[in-house]
Amino acid sequence: MSHVLPTGRRLGISMMLALGTSLSALGGSPAFAQQGQAAIPSIHLDIPRQPLSAALQAFSRRTGIQVVYTASIDAGIISPGISGDFDAMTALSRLLSGTGVTFRQSGKGAVVLAKASANITLGPVRVGGTVAHENPTGPGVGYVATSTMAGTKTDTPIMEIPNSIYVVTKQLMQDQQPQNVAQALRYSPGIMAESEGTYGNGSAHGADTGIIQRGFSTSQFVDGLMTNSVSAGETAFLERIEVVNGPASVMYGQTTPGGMLAMSLKKPTDTPLRQVSIGFGNCGRYQATFDISDKITKSGNVRYRIAAIGVTQGTQTNYVDYHRVGVMPSITWDIDKNTSLTLLGMYMYTPGEGVASQYPRIGTLSPGPYGQISRSTFFGEPNWNKMGDKDAMFEYQFKHSFNKYINFSQNFRWENSDRHQETTYVKTGAVKPTIVPLQPMDYYTNTRTIGMDARFFGKFNIESVNNTWVIGSDFRKYNYNSHYLYDYTTTPSVNVDNPSYSYTPCYSWAHAGCQIMGSLYNTQYFQEGVYFQDQIKWKRLSILVGGRQDWVNMKYTGDSTSSNQNVNNVKTTQDYLSTDKPQPQSAFTWRAGIIYNFDFGLAPYFSYATSFIPQIGQTDYQGHPFAPLTGKQMEAGLKYKVPNKDILLTAAAFHIEEDNYLISDLAHTGYSTNAGRVRSQGFELSANANITKDLRLIASYSYTDIRYAKTNKTAKRYDLNTSSSYGTAVSQEGMSVPYVPRNMFSFFVDYTIHFGKLKGFGINFGTRYTGFTYADSVESFKTRPYVLFDAGAHYDFGQAFSVLKGLNAQLAMSNLANTYYETQCSNSVCYLGQGRRVYGNLTYNW
C-alpha cells in the first residue's frame, strides 16, 4: 500500500490522498536540480521533531507538494523537524535527514520516497543556486546551528560573523537534560558556568547565576532584551541558548567585554506540537511538563503555544528544597504575508529556591580537624530558612516587511520579580576550624524592568557589493528596591562536627530585647541607545562595521536605622551618601571586523570591539558611585565548515583590557573597590558536529589568563591551613584575578542505534575538566582542579513498536563519580559543586 500526502483535509484508512499542485512550480530535488536554474522562492517552515508521517503531512499542507510512499517507509521513523526559510526541496531533504529515506521526482510531477542506500545521510543541499539556512532563533539541527540573530540582530550565517559565537541547540539540551542555564553552558567555550551564584544545588536561577565569560561576569538577554528575571534560567521555556564571546555593546548596550548570553523563548510553531513528560530523579525530584502548539484559525495564520512546568525536589544539602510551577502562553498572528505579531506571557512561582550557604574552607579545600565536611551539612538555621520568588513577564514581537529593501522589527518586554528570603549567612571573617558563626537576616527585593528594541533593517546592492544594514534604538528602564533586616540579638553558630540548631528569630522593632538593623535601598536607571551596523559582502569577503551611542541616567539612595544605635557600630542615615539626583553617564562604542570564506570551507577573521557598562547600584564604603566599566578587545580566529557536512570547527585568540574593574574591599566587608585595569587573554577551540545520522559530538578547550594589569591595590597573603594573614602587603599588579580557571576542557558524544534489535536506543557520555583558580587577588592559594563525568541513555519506543510511536524514555546523569569539588574559595569559605545527579523522564509526542 502506498501513501499520498496532499495539502490535505483528511487521512483515510488506506492513507491514499491526492493533490494537484505541480512540483515543477517549486523546483526539483537535488537529484534533478538544473545547473544555472533561477533562484526558487523560499517559505518559512517550523515543523517540530515528530513521527515522519505527521511531518510529511505538515510539509504537504504548507508547500502543496504531493508526497507518495509505501506503508513500510514511515514505520517507527521520526523526522528531526525543521525551522527556518527553505525552498521546498531543501525543506523535504531536511525533514528526511537521518531517517534513511530519500526522494525522487516521478514522471507525473510527484515526489516519491524510498529507502536510501546504506550510510546515506541527507543534509543541507544546494537547490536552484541557493543554499537554505535554519531559523536563526530556532532549535538548530542536532548539535549544529549555522545561523544566528544574536551576533548582528540580522539573520546571518555564523561563518560570516568575525567573532566567536557558540550555540547550545535544543537537541543538546534534550540529551543532557540541564535544569538551568548554567548547567546548559557547561560544555561551551570561554564559559565558567559553576561559580558562586550556582551554589552547587542545581536550582533554576535566572540572571543571578554568577556565570563568568572570558574572565568577566556576564549578562543575559532574552529575545534580544536584557533580563534580571529568575525565569531566565528555566530551560523548559527555551528554544536555544547562544554564547556571544567578546564585547557586544554595539548591538546591546551595557555588556562587559567578556560577552553576553542570548536566549530564545519558545513560540508558536507552524505545525501542531503536542508533548507531555513526567520525570524523576535523586534527592526526591519529581517533574511534569507540557508543551502544546496548534493553529487557532483554519488557515493557520493565528497559532498558539503553551509551555508549563511543575517540579519539586530536595537538594544535596539538608533542609534545602526546591519547588517551582510556571506557565508560558504565546500567540502568533500573521496579519498578512508581510506582517506578524507575537505575544508572550509568563508567570513563575518558586516558593523554594533551593540555595545553600557557604562552607568553611577548612574542612573542604583544606584539611579539617574532623575530616572532610559533608555536602549534606547545612550551615544555617532550619527555622529561619525560606527563599521564594514570584516572576511575571509580558512580551511582544512585531515584524513588518515594507519591501525587499526595508523591514521593521520591534521587541518589547515588561517583567517584575519579587524575592523574599529568611536566611542566615556565614560571617566569613570569624570562621574557626570547628565553629561557623552565622548572621541572621530577612530581606525582600523587587525588580521591575521595561525594555524595548526597535530597528529598521534591509539589504541593498551596489553592483557586486551586498549590504545588510541595521539602524535601531533601544531603551531600558530599571527599578530595584530592597529592604534588609539584620538580627544582632543573638549570635547563632553551627558546630562543624556535630551540627545543632537553636536560633530564635527576633525581628520586632517594638520588642525591647530585639537588636535590629534595617536598611532600605533603591536603584533606578534609564538607559537609551542608538546604533547602526553595516555588513558588507563582496564575493567571499565580508566586512562588519557598527557603532552605538549610549546615555544612562541613574539614581541610588540608601537609608539605614537600628533599634539600638550602639549595636555593632551599625550605620545611621547620616552615614550614607545618597545620589538621589540623576547621575548621567554616556559612551560611544564601536566595532569592526573582517572575515573571508574560502570555497573549501575555511574562514579566517579579525575583529576589534569596545564595551561600556555603568556601575549601577554599586558604591564604595563611603557611598560614592564607581566610574563605568570600559573595555576593548582584539580577536583573531579561524572557522571551518566541512563542505556538505554538519561539522563546524572554530579557533579564536583574544586580548581584552577593561578599566575600573571591581574587586571585594578587604578593609570594608560587603563593599567593592576599584582595582584599576585588568587584562584577559587566551584562546578557545570548539567543535560542533553531526558526524553521521547516528553520531553527534561537541568539544571545546579554553585557555584564559586574566590579571591585574594596572592597579595601586595591595593586600596580605593568607595561609592555606590557618586562614590567617601573614607578612607585609604585596602589590596586586600582575597577579591573577581570582575565581577564573585558566584551563577548561570538555567533550560530549551521543550515539543512537538505527538498526537491529536495539534500533532506537542511544547512549551518551561527556567529560568536563576545570583547572585551578586562585582564592584572592594576591594568589595566596589555589582551589583544586577537577574532572567530572556525565552519561546518559535514551530510547525511542516507536522504532521497535509502532503502537508506541512518540513515546521516548531518557536518563541523564551528571558527575557520575560523585566527585567532591569546590567551585570557588576565599580565605575562609568555599562553595561546593553539585554531586551526582540522576534524572529520568518519559516523554510522549503526538
From TrEMBL:
GO biological process assignments: siderophore transport
- GO CC aspect terms: cell outer membrane
Could you cite one Gene Ontology molecular function of this protein?
siderophore uptake transmembrane transporter activity
Start and end of every Secretin/TonB short N-terminal domain? 65-116
Q: Which SUPFAM superfamilies match?
A: Porins
**Which PROSITE patterns does this chain map to?**
TONB_DEPENDENT_REC_3
Question: Which Pfam families would you find in this protein's record?
Answer: Plug (PF07715), TonB_dep_Rec_b-barrel (PF00593)
UniProt keyword list = Cell outer membrane, Ion transport, Iron, Iron transport, Membrane, Receptor, Signal, TonB box, Transmembrane, Transmembrane beta strand, Transport
State where the protein is found: Cell outer membrane
Signal peptide positions are 1-33
The membrane topology term of the UniProt record is:
Multi-pass membrane protein
- Regions crossing the membrane: none
Give the family this protein belongs to, as stated in its UniProt record: Belongs to the TonB-dependent receptor family.
- Which protein, by its recorded name, is this? Iron complex outermembrane receptor protein
Species of origin:
Gluconacetobacter liquefaciens (Acetobacter liquefaciens)
